[in-house]
Amino acid sequence: MPLVTPLSPDHDKETKELAEFFNETLGFCPNSVLTMQRRPAISKAFINLNKAVMANEGRVTSALKRMIAWVSSNATGCRYCQAHAIRAAERYGAEQEQLDNIWEYKTHPAFSDAERAALDFSLAATLVPNNVDEKIKTELYKYWDEGEIVEMLGVISLFGYLNRWNDSMGTSIEDGAVESGNQYLGKHGWEKGKHI
User: Fold this and answer.
1) Integer Cα distance of 104 and 99 in angstroms
2) Half-sphere exposure of 86 (CA within 13 A, CB side)
3) CA-CA-CA-CA torsion for 57, 62, 64, 68, nearest 10 degrees?
4) Is CB count within 10 Å lower at the N or C end of the chain?
């Protein structure tokens, strides 16, 4: 049961208009946004930040950004965000082999060394205490420029917020996210947990 009940998508007109962004990303407006709109300034600021972070300005693809989000969410244990991230990765064209083997990104041949560097950065930056060190930096700089690293850390930081929000709220997970979670993550024990 959620800590706070999501409001109707029609509750705040500006949030509803901004939230159309999620129809492309996920195919629905997330319940997390519908909860945030109890304070519309928060929902609007969040959506605008999400749009800015997920904009592609370098070589970090939309699919890779969502896989970075998945690694971060997996590290924190937020099942809601794990399912959303893998669903969005699928919708943004992640290769089937990557979706099927995201748990093994460190060794699976479907992932390039550049992608591994980005995903290792996501894991290191998500951990508490933080594990970004000289080795992570060296690997990142082999493949990515500083603007692309900023984009990646934007995703990691955005999902840090979302992981805290959704696990604390016990946000009810949407059917489409459950479907993607079961399809790609279920074989490794993913379940919706408290996000009923």
Assistant:
1) 10
2) 28
3) 90
4) N
CB 132 within 8 A of CB 153: no
10 secondary structure, DSSP code: T
Model confidence pLDDT, tens digit, residues 38-69: 999 999 999 999 999 999 999 999 999 999 99
CA dist., res. 30 & res. 23, Å (int):
9
Nearest to 49 by CA among 84, 7, 78, 21: 21
- CA–CA gap between residue 47 and residue 53 (Å, rounded): 10
Give dist(CA 34, CA 40) in Å, integer. 9
The closest alpha carbon to 171, from 72, 97, 47, 82, belongs to 82
